[in-house]
Amino acid sequence: MSSVLPSFAAIQRRQRVHAAVRELLAEQGFRISMDAVAARAGCSKQTLYAQFGSKQALLRSMIDEHLDLTTVRLEDGPGTGNDVRGTLLAFAMEHLAHLCDPSVVATSQLLTAEAHQFPEEAKALYRDGCERLTERLARWLASAMERGLLKQDDPHLAAELLLSMITGLDFERQRFAVPHRRSLAARRRWAEFAVDGFLRAFPPAIGMAAAAADAPSKPQEFQI
User: In the chain, how many domains are there?
Assistant: First the structure.
């Protein structure tokens, strides 16, 4: 029992710290400090440095948490059921739900406005977030291509194309304070349109397509 409690306490502390970072990024942008995070999370600055080492490592830890949630459907590979469409739809819905979160919208607007003042921090945030998300998706697509579930092509370019299709113009709508896809129904409709368009561009090999057509269909369920 005693060995479990410290781990549980550490998890709770990490969650509080991550929540504090998300809140402060929306309020302060790149000016966020370790002092502010410690005060918001209810811990000491020494504790933050002991656990994370630096502000950049703390930001990377928070981004890792988001990436794990967004890409959880991709972790097991294309799967024995060959349900490429279902997996990509689930991924798209998770990604769109994150992009439409009000705190994420506020953070994106503030960080975009400040990027020219903090170029190194902005580049690091892009590398830790966008580039790593693209890399995870590219690995999954490469595996699907190797198995004949998708047409062979450059998986990194395909990943960037799919992410662009999923995002659409919502970033631009958010940036200019224009209504975007807030509702679950609107996000699902767009996710299906984007994923189906992507799959038409990267159809599976003929044999795999025939096998998928003969397989019993299952209703799609989205959990976000």
Answer: 2
Residue 182 structural domain: 71-214
CB 181 within 8 A of CB 170: yes
Question: Is residue 219 a part of any domain in this protein?
Answer: no
pLDDT reported for residue 180: 77
Shared domain for 24 and 104, answered yes or no, is no
DSSP 202: S
Residue 97's CATH number: 1.10.357.10
Look at residue 62 and tell me if it is in a domain: no
Residue pair 74/136 in contact by the 8 Å Cβ criterion = yes
Find, among 136, 145, 144, the residue nearest to 78 by Cα: 144
Q: Helix %, strand %, coil % for the chain, to 5? A: 75, 0, 25
Query: In 62-110, where do the E strands start and end?
Result: none
Q: Is 183 exposed, middle or buried (0-12, 13-18, 19+ CB in 10 A)?
A: exposed
pTM of the model as a whole:
0.81
CATH of residue 36: 1.10.10.60
Instruction: For the chain, give the mean pLDDT.
Output: 86
pLDDT at 4: 44
Which letter does DSSP use for residue 217 in this model?
A: P
Structure tokens at 23: 């809140």
How do residues 31-63 score in pLDDT, each as one tens digit? 999 999 999 999 999 999 999 999 999 999 999
